[in-house]
Amino acid sequence: METLLIERSGGVVTVVMNRPEKKNAMNGIMFDELTQVFREVEHNEDDRCLVLTGAGGEFCTGADLTDPRGAMDPSTPGIIRMRRLNETALALYELSKPTIAKVDGLAVGAGMSLAIGCDLVVASERARFSMIFTSRGLSPDLGSSWLLPRLIGLAQARELVLLAEMTSAERGKELGFVNRVVPLETLEEVVATLATQLATGPSIALGLAKSLLNQTFQTSMAQALEDEGRAQAVNFGTEDLGEAIRAFMGKRPPVFKGR
């Protein structure tokens, strides 16, 4: 691909946004390639966890507003351009596989939106985040106006969005949109350990758990119980459940196959 580096190992797909000269700002090609990769991972049974990161010591500084083929394409109406970009956010959010944002350096604007669109955000101590949109005469996009209040509450989301200030990784953890903050020298190891744990887990159960959590603010308790029951009914028929029981009885770690 032109703007991404893709590596697959042991069920973990690492997607590196690779425009370091632009601090990994997303041009039109990158948006299209990210959408393509997210959809490929969804349908590839061998892909069991996705790690999203950036090259050159930065995560992503948002959409490249200088790219005439991207968010600022003058030949296409704005709403049409944004629907194309929104496909990227939706493809990431709808992934049934666990996703991890490995964040070093800047994650701002749509870059922060991508990060918080992942299931887990693991950041280096020097990582910085910003809902920078309003300082550029824009409003939040790529799902951040929906995601952020659900992660940290409406009052804190208002502060981050309206003031558009830079936020440290540690502050992000306190607010609740960053899961773990680690020294830069251990970032790779920590994310690799988490990704391996998820990639070797019971894929069907993990996907169902993720779906249940994603629906939690849009359903009633009664509907949640019904959805949980249906999910468990699916889990009861998997090979992984049988393996989990055998492993428990045999006092050994389970070896899940994702089936």
Could you explain the architecture of this structure?
- This protein is α/β, with parallel strands linked by helices and 259 residues long.
- The chain folds into 2 domains: 196 residues, Alpha-Beta Complex (2-enoyl-CoA Hydratase, Chain A, domain 1); 47 residues, Lyase 2-enoyl-coa Hydratase, Chain  A, domain 2 (Orthogonal Bundle).
- The chain contains 10 helices and 9 strands.
- The mean pLDDT is 94.
State the CATH superfamily name of the largest domain.
2-enoyl-CoA Hydratase, Chain A, domain 1
**Integer-rounded radius of gyration:** 19 Å
Largest sheet properties: 6 strands, mixed
Widest sheet, order of strands? 1-2-3-4-6-9
Please work out how many helical segments DSSP would assign: 10
Q: What general form does the structure show?
A: globular
CATH architecture of the largest domain: Alpha-Beta Complex
Number of strands: 9
Ends distance: 31 Å
How much strand content do the residues show?
A: 15-25%
Low-confidence stretches: none
Query: What share of residues is helical?
Result: 40-55%
Give the ordered list of helices and strands.
Answer: EEHEHEEHEEHHEHEHHHH
* CATH topology descriptor of the largest domain: 2-enoyl-CoA Hydratase, Chain A, domain 1
* Overall average residue pLDDT: 94
The total domain count is 2
User: Would you state the CATH class of the largest domain?
Assistant: Alpha Beta
Which class best fits the helix and strand makeup? alpha/beta
